[in-house]
């Protein structure tokens, strides 16, 4: 779905006197964003890509950051306060850009993920410096975008930048190491270097398990890519077994979430007193949601092409998608997958009991949002 950007740009009246560069490619700029008036572009195409990738979300946030502070004879305390506010704004911008970029990557919108990743990189450098471990994440995002766009040489460069930063910093989060290996794995998988790819995905799963636990959905990405390599290698049995484990992983997690959501919906105060984590644990953030959609729909497509279908696995997959869309509060899609799951469950009975329980919860949650 292509949304028309609500952007306006006007040509710079006097570009020769203004030393401004394009936000995306750093070439001399000839147009600027009329909404913030602090962001410049070489042409309208680069403005369009930036707008759809990230600028729409941060346009107004950039104004205070890019408007020069006039000379004010404030006290040292006041200057310090202003600086703190600027850093807070920059950090907020890093969060917004980074989340937007991650989400676009899972949605396969690599062209638009690049401006989001570049913005994250720029502000991360400003806040943390050019050798900080925080830079690994935006470099990995840029690498992944380039893999998606088949710019493999550029991807390799970005990934090695990330690797260099990770090696130089002794305090590096296992989750970042896991992401680095996932990206290298994806690069090798694209080049059909299956052995190298599998080695990196195994490392990804190892570090991810250390960071989040073996059964955590955050570890599922590594298993997913590994399964895809086995599938490419025509090792279908191994691939389907991994896809099955992945579906179970998501099914269990989402089942717990739906269960907790139903408790919350029925608002049993005593349960809330016991478990304070209820609210946090029954929501997926935007990035996790996008990852789940990608993984579960890929698996669904494989099952639908399988003749004859593996009814047990197909039912579980449809059921998991129904729960996913319930948690994401997309009740139209949830209903679609629920009715598909119910009809395949009639042919294969193992999930029927849980499905009927879910159906009643689903109806209650759907009604509550009306
Ligand atoms: Zn440009
Ligand atoms: Zn703007």
Automatic annotation (TrEMBL):
SUPFAM superfamilies with a match to the protein in the record: HIT/MYND zinc finger-like, TPR-like
Pfam family name, one: zf-MYND
Key words of the record: Metal-binding, Zinc, Zinc-finger
PROSITE patterns: ZF_MYND_2
Coiled coil: none
Residue span, MYND-type domain: 22-59
PANTHER family named among the record's database cross-references: ZINC FINGER MYND DOMAIN-CONTAINING PROTEIN 12
Protein name: Zinc finger MYND domain-containing protein 12 isoform X2
């Amino acid at each position: 779905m292509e949304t028309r950007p609500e952007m306006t740009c006007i040509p710079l009246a006097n570009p020769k006197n203004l030393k401004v560069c394009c936000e995306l490619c750093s070439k001399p700029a000839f147009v600027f964003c009329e909404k913030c008036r602090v962001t410049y572009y070489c042409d309208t195409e680069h403005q369009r890509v930036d707008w759809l990738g990230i600028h729409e979300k941060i346009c107004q946030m950039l104004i205070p950051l890019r408007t020069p502070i006039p000379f004010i004879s404030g006290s040292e305390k006041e200057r310090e306060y202003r600086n703190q506010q600027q850093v807070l704004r920059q950090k907020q911008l890093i969060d917004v850009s980074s989340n937007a970029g991650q989400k676009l990557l899972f949605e396969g919108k690599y062209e638009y993920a690049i401006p989001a990743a570049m913005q994250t990189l720029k502000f991360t450098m400003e806040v943390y410096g050019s050798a900080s471990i925080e830079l690994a994440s935006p470099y990995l995002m840029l690498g992944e975008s380039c893999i998606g766009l088949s710019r493999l040489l550029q991807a390799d460069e970005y990934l090695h930048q990330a690797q260099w930063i990770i090696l130089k910093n002794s305090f590096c989060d296992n989750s970042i190491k896991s992401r680095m290996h996932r990206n290298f794995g994806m690069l090798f998988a694209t080049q059909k270097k299956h052995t190298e790819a599998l080695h990196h995905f195994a490392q990804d799963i190892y570090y991810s398990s250390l960071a989040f636990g073996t059964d955590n959905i955050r570890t599922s990405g590594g298993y997913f890519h590994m399964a895809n390599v086995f599938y490419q290698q025509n090792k279908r049995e191994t691939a389907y077994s991994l896809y099955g484990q992945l579906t179970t992983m998501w099914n269990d997690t989402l089942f717990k979430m739906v269960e907790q959501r139903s408790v919350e919906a029925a608002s049993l105060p005593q349960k809330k007193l016991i478990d304070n984590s209820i609210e946090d644990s029954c929501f997926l953030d935007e990035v996790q949601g996008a990852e789940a959609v990608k993984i579960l729909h890929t698996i669904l497509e494989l099952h639908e092409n399988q003749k004859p279908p593996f009814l047990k696995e197909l039912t579980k997959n449809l059921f998991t998608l129904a729960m996913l869309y319930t948690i994401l509060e997309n009740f139209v899609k949830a209903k679609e997958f629920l009715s598909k799951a119910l009809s395949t469950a009639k042919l294969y009975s193992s999930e029927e009991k849980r499905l009927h329980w879910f159906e009643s919860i689903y109806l209650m949650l759907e009604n509550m949002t009306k």
